[in-house]
Amino acid sequence: MAEIFRQPAFMTTPAAVSWASWGPLYRDQAEFLNAFLQRTVQPSNPNQSHVTLFHPGERAVLDLARELQADALIDEQKAHDHAITQGLDAVSVPEYLVILLREGILTVTQAVTVFQQLMMLGRSPQPFIDWARYQLQAQGGQV
């Protein structure tokens, strides 16, 4: 929570959070907070910390992925690369978008719409954006 909203970590349960306590939010932050308040998203923290590099959010993602033997959804380039060198499966947000398209969860039109939103936000590293653009174009997407 603290990493996503850049707020103090003391707010760890939906009961402790209110919209007013956060101030202005980006759209994706507001959607996440709404899901958190409705308890459709449950936070999980790793039991142990093995990673000493990166910011707290990236460290937690890498530690939790290792602990759960799960893929790491991580959009920070260096942390993403580190995950792969450590034998973890890492996927960026633009890569995940392409996976959703390939799995038939999203249509090409939906994937292009989300991709354009990702580009407007400017939070994904350019190599991830470029790869996803190429993949979407190969599927007939106009991006």
Describe the overall structure.
The chain has 143 residues and is an all-alpha fold. It has 7 helices and 2 strands. Helix 5 runs antiparallel to helix 6.
Shape: globular
Return the string of H and E elements.
Answer: HHHEHEHHH
Unreliable residue stretches? 7-15
The main sheet comes to: 2 strands, parallel
Beta-strand content? under 5%
Number of helices: 7
Give the structural class: mainly alpha
Mean pLDDT figure: 83
Strand order of the largest sheet: 1-2
- Per DSSP E runs of 2 or more residues, the count of β-strands stands at 2
Portion in helices: 40-55%
How many angstroms does the end-to-end distance come to?
32 Å
What is the CA-atom radius of gyration, in angstroms? 16 Å
Task: Tell me the layout of helices and strands.
Layout: H1 2-5, H2 27-37, H3 56-68, E1 72-73, H4 77-85, E2 90-91, H5 93-102, H6 108-121, H7 126-138
Salient structural properties:
143 residues; mainly alpha; two-stranded parallel sheet; 7 helices; 2 strands; 3% strand
How would you sum up this structure in a few lines?
With 143 residues, this protein is an all-alpha fold. It has helices spanning 2-5, 27-37, 56-68, 77-85, 93-102, 108-121, 126-138, and strands at 72-73, 90-91.
